[in-house]
Amino acid sequence: MSEFDGRTILVTGAGGGIGGAIVRQLIAAGADVLAAGRTAESLTEIVNETGAQPLDFDLEDEESIRGAIEGEDLYGVVNCGGYGGEIATPMETDISVFDKVMSVNARGSLLVTKYASREMVRRGLGGAIVNVSSQASLVALSGHISYGSSKAALDSITRVSALELGEYGIRVNSVNPTVVMTPMSAWYWGRPEIEGPFLEAMPLHRWATEKDIAAPVVFLLSDGAAMISGVSLPIDGGYSSR
Asked: What pLDDT, in 10s, does the model give residues 140-199?
């Protein structure tokens, strides 16, 4: 019998690459997964593949989030839904893009935590929340003024939530991945003048895979991480240790 049997875990951004990998690994571990995304269409593939239960809501709409989450018997949450925004310097940044990135990555994750944690407290069985942050919150990356700021805010949300929810037996942690090389990220990170120096500076000299991110997330949700809370865990090949 798996430790995840009978445990329902909500995963936002489930239609994406990292979110989908997390859903697959949680299902394989025996969890009941609520696969969440902005639209039902974005969830069709992962739901058909894994049998996860779809749940669509808008991370920028508090009432949408509340309506979707209230009444769910949750053990855990993975805040993986996010928005990349733009590559721009502080001099060039479009503040409307900054606002959007903050709204989705920080505000949206906080709203999910707000309503999910209420259900977890109601059940009285403890649980775990994992926020998918970024190495961009730990080190300065060129062009990442908006994205890095949003993920730094998410790391702060993680620490304060760990402090506030610990008395209910709820652990809260972040994972801080490096780039996962997908077609969506290749337009920037795949450029030779960007990729070469970045990977040279990384001790492991390779990009992360979706599975590289999903496995530590599942661990942090598990009983093996029962004494870990308030941590921001780099999954960046040693880049932020420099």
From this structure: 999 999 999 999 999 999 999 999 999 999 999 999 999 998 877 889 999 999 999 999
Q: 48-79: per-residue pLDDT in tens? A: 999 999 999 999 999 999 999 999 999 999 99
Say if CB 176 and CB 119 are below 8 A apart: no
Number of Cβ within 10 Å of residue 193's Cβ equals 7
Which of 147, 168, 211, 239 is catalytic? The answer is: 147
Domains along the chain with CATH numbers: 8-183+210-228 (3.40.50.720)
Token pair in block for residue 151: 């993920």
Please determine, for residue 90, whether its predicted confidence score (pLDDT) is greater than 90.
yes
Average pLDDT estimate for 133-138 = 98
- Annotated catalytic residue: which of 151, 168, 188, 211? 151
Q: What is the 8-class DSSP label of residue 241?
A: G
Sheet hosting strand 127-132, strand order edge to edge = 53-56, 32-37, 8-11, 76-79, 127-132, 170-177, 232-235
Known catalytic residue: 151? Answer: yes
Asked about 239 being catalytic, the answer comes back as no
